[in-house]
Amino acid sequence: MKTALNGLATHKSRSVLTILGIVIGITSIILVMSLGQGAQDLILGQVQGIGSKVIAIVPGRQPKGPTDFISTFADSLKSKDIDALNKKANVPHLNGIMPVVFGAETAAFGSETYRPTIFGVTGLFSEIYNIYPEKGRIFSDDEVKSYADVVIIGSKVKEELVGNDDILNQKIKIKGRNFRVIGILPKKGQSSFINFDEVAFIPYTTGQQYVFGIKHFNRIVVETDTESAVAQTVEDVKVTLRNSHNIDNPDKDDFFIETQAEAVQMVSTITNVLTLFLAAVAAISLLVGGIGIMNIMLVSVTERTREIGLRKALGATEKDILVQFLLESVILTAVGGAIGIALGASLSFLISIVLSNVLAVNWAFTFPVGAAALGLGVAAFVGLVFGIYPARQASKKSPIEALRYE
Amino acid sequence: MALIEAEGLEKTYDEDGGAVTQAVRGVTFKINKGEFVAIMGPSGSGKSTLLHILGFLDRQSGGTYRFDGKTIDDYSPVELARVRNRQMGFVFQTFNLLSRASVLENVKLPLLYSDIEESLWNEKTMKAIEAVGLSHRVNHESAKLSGGEKQRVAIARALVLDPQIIFADEPTGNLDSKSGLAVMETIQHLNEKHGHTIILITHETYTAEHAERIIHILDGKIDKDEKVGHRRRSDEFSK
Fold first, then answer.
1. Per-residue model confidence (pLDDT) at position B237
2. Which residues of chain A are within 8 Å of residue B154 when distances are taken between CB atoms?
């Protein structure tokens, strides 16, 4: 053990270079895999943030390919559909229903302006998106029915309009109308593909009538009573809407339905490709690291062959030599691996913090155990093969042959 | 009693392209314990090859070699390593030190492979370093020493386990004459005062004349085996 440590200490630059090779390989594989996992979790989290009991009805025909446009029948969802869906006989497992209209509009408070995404919804949005005002309240059903000019704003909207001052119960202007701020949302960032810090929620009735000037809905969101009822409810909704829209042939549907399960499946397909791509990148970085280790090991063979010859001349057995080189490789790999894992993990942790702040998303740091193990395994393998194989060859030579090795 | 018995020793090398070089062609001699023998010859005469065979660093291609009464073929690889470690010391023309290790670490090297208790290592190492007069250089990196000092480190390393026999392959070959004489003085001292058997390889007559016997090698054969009439003393040269 001491011999091995001495061997490493006397060849500091070589040891450092070898460790560097291992560190680079392992750091990059951990970084890539950790960030990849983080991205995957983030995207899946966005989808799951919608809630597993929620289905979204989207107007238009479901796009069948990249050249198929979603815009046809964009105005197919009307209030009569809400009435039809609300009938217990049509959709028995319906627990709540929320029409949605949306678009970007400028909001003004005094001389300050900001352009949030305006969502016309009902009070159900809090439950569906799992976000409740930090200050104030959500709007009541009466306010929705009465086309009330009330608004709940996201944290960034509030900040842009009044900074740290209070804005609750004051009026902001949207599309020329005064809306009373009745609620302010907490900082939440991106979730369910919506940045909740940059939105304003108003009653959908007000939105249709006064802000967007439309008669249709951009979405209808339905919440089922249980998760297991989602599939049944999807069928019920389809039948109800086909009746309501006088459609006989399902191919001619002017709406389609998104569920969390479907979205997860779709997103999984994408993220699986992403993961494959990342794995390829990681494999390349491991290869590069491995080649680095290999180079250093092979470059030092000449020098080490003479050292082996000398050690044998002084009484070392083949086993002594092999044990020494094995320990050296193990120590290098262990040290390089530990540094690589620590460095990779801290870098990806730092990046996750930076990304969380810059993108205003909840980017979770994950430690890829499998990748770390794989990285260590490959580094150890390369180190052993290219460190020990030449040593073994050299230790089999007669001492004088090894001493004279050029 | 003969420590070394060589009978018809031969060594051939296969060259690239199929040619065979015969470096040693049937050499027979005996060397007794405590003797100081110089093997002398021009370069390419096979003297180094012979020394490597005698020192278990290489194997002969023909003939028999008995060390301490036992033929080399009777030793297992592990036993060969043990004999090299405990009974033989080597001093090479090119020093063969671990250049980035300190004097202490270099001299200690054979102890790593011995069965001597670790607690005694430093004491033995220091004693050997002292014997070659390098106590003031113990922690110096060996690459930074002069040639003469390096060779003395190598001698200390050869001495550290108090071997029966020391093989010195052109120990003065890379040294200036003054350092060379100091090295020869040390070797002579080891033989006379401590009773180490010495086999010295050299191509220089005056170096060889430090020994009590000279075996002349020419073209892989013994040309002449003679006692030295008037042994050189290193102090004579320095005067």
1. 46
2. none
Crossing angle for the helix pair A318-359 and A2-10, to the nearest 10 degrees: 60
> Which pLDDT band, with edges at 50, 70 and 90, does A107 fall under?
very high
Beta bridge partners, B198, equal: B36, B166
**How many contacts (CB atoms, under 8 Å) link A and B?**
65
Q: Where are the domains of chain B?
A: 34-56+76-238
Give dist(CA A196, CA A207) in Å, integer: 18
| pLDDT on residue A72 | 61
pTM for the full predicted model = 0.68
Contact state of A398 with B59 under an 8 Å Cβ cutoff: yes
Kindly list the residues from chain B whose CB atom is less than 8 angstroms away from the CB atom of residue A11.
100
Contact A314 B82 (CB under 8 A): no
d(CA B27, CA B202): 18
Collect all residues of chain A within an 8 Å Cβ-Cβ radius of residue B112. Answer: 2-3, 316, 320
When pLDDT is averaged across residues A293-297 and rounded to a whole number, the result is: 75
User: Element (H or E) spanning A204, and its range?
Assistant: helix A204-206
Which tokens hold the place of A90?
């049509």
Q: Would you call B141 an interface residue with chain A, using a CB distance cutoff of 8 Å?
A: no
B34-56+76-238 is classed in which CATH architecture? Answer: 3-Layer(aba) Sandwich (3.40)
B100 touches chain A (CB under 8 A): yes
CA distance to partner chain B, nearest, from residue A334 (Å): 24
- Range with the largest mean pLDDT of A17-21, A73-77, A220-224: A220-224
Task: Print burial letters for B79-92: b (CB count within 10 Å at least 16), e (below 16).
Answer: ebbbbbbbbbbbbb
> Residue range A179-193: average pLDDT?
86
> Once rounded to an integer, what is the mean pLDDT over residues A178-190?
90
